[in-house]
């Protein structure tokens, strides 16, 4: 399960409204991409869904439950950031285990999940290393592993690949879309990169200044962009 609904969500910082009233539904199992220029409110929206920022008004629902007042750790979501946010002094194994340890999971179950995550992310040989001994791509895999073991109802990615070089980025895109095909878990992926949006999404949400310009599949946006902004941003010929 992982249906996410935003009802009239707004967000202001002081007197500046960065998200005017916004309504959006992400269906269970969708791969949704929030795309738009830098500063348009993608991260803010993701953080409101995660509970890392409070909505100024409106509601966030997960599987029909109103989670607006519920703390981030109780929302059943896992977030992966651009900067990995790994603990440098802990081994890969301990980094991946961290959220499970915090949740009080048994050692046996932790080990089972670590093994499965390491297998699917090609990290088996790196479990005893520290993050500093890994490449950027491997570090991002550890961050994804730490998200997977929590068995979240949805994954939230905030520009997870923008610190990687171009070649690695292409490979990691494939890994994330394969992971989605395998797990069928809802994913919301934030990027300012049109190519990433067009190649990864089932549903693209185009944002400009906190406003949804259009929601649709990559093909719909390409063939029927609603306005010049969407056409220009998506690279549609219209
Ligand atoms: P994006 O992720 O699309 O680049 P952000 O969501 O980070 O955009 O930012 C949207 C707007 O909100 C920007 O104008 C940014 O400066 C502002 N903003 C974001 N976080 C804060 C904050 N904690 N305090 C004040 N303004 C913020
Ligand atoms: Mg951002």
Automatic annotation (TrEMBL):
Keyword line: ATP-binding, Hydrolase, Nucleotide-binding, Transport
Signal sequence coordinates: none
| One annotated Gene Ontology cellular component of this protein | ATP-binding cassette (ABC) transporter complex, substrate-binding subunit-containing
Q: Which residues form the ABC transporter domain?
A: 4-234
What EC class does the entry list? hydrolase
Any idea of its EC number? Answer: 3.6.3.20
Record carries keyword Nucleotide-binding: yes
- Give GO terms: molecular function aspect only: ABC-type maltose transporter activity; ATP binding; ATP hydrolysis activity
Family (UniProt): Belongs to the ABC transporter superfamily.
Which protein, by its recorded name, is this?
sn-glycerol-3-phosphate import ATP-binding protein UgpC
Organism phylogeny: Bacteria, Pseudomonadati, Pseudomonadota, Alphaproteobacteria, Rhodobacterales
């Amino acid at each position: 399960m992982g249906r996410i609904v935003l009802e009239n969500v707004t967000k202001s910082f002081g007197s500046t409204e960065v998200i005017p009233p916004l309504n959006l539904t992400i269906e269970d199992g969708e791969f949704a991409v929030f795309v738009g220029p830098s500063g348009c409110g993608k991260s803010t929206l993701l953080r409101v869904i995660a509970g890392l920022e409070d909505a100024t008004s409106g509601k966030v629902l997960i599987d029909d439950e109103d989670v607006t007042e519920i703390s981030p750790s109780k929302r059943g979501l896992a977030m992966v950031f651009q900067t990995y946010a790994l603990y440098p002094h802990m081994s890969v194994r301990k980094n991946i285990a961290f959220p499970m340890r915090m949740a009080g999971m048994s050692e046996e179950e932790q080990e089972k999940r670590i093994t499965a995550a390491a297998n699917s992310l090609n990290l088996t040989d790196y479990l005893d290393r520290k993050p500093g001994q890994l490449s950027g791509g491997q570090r991002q895999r550890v961050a994804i592993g730490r998200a997977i073991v929590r068995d979240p109802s949805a994954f939230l990615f905030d520009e997870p690949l923008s610190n990687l070089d171009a070649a690695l980025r292409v490979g990691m895109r494939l890994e994330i879309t394969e992971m989605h095909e395998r797990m069928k878990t809802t994913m919301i992926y934030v990027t300012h990169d049109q190519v990433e949006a067009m190649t990864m999404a089932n549903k693209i949400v185009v944002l400009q200044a906190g406003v949804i310009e259009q929601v649709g599949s990559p093909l719909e946006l390409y063939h029927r962009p609603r306005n010049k902004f969407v056409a220009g941003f998506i690279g549609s010929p219209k």
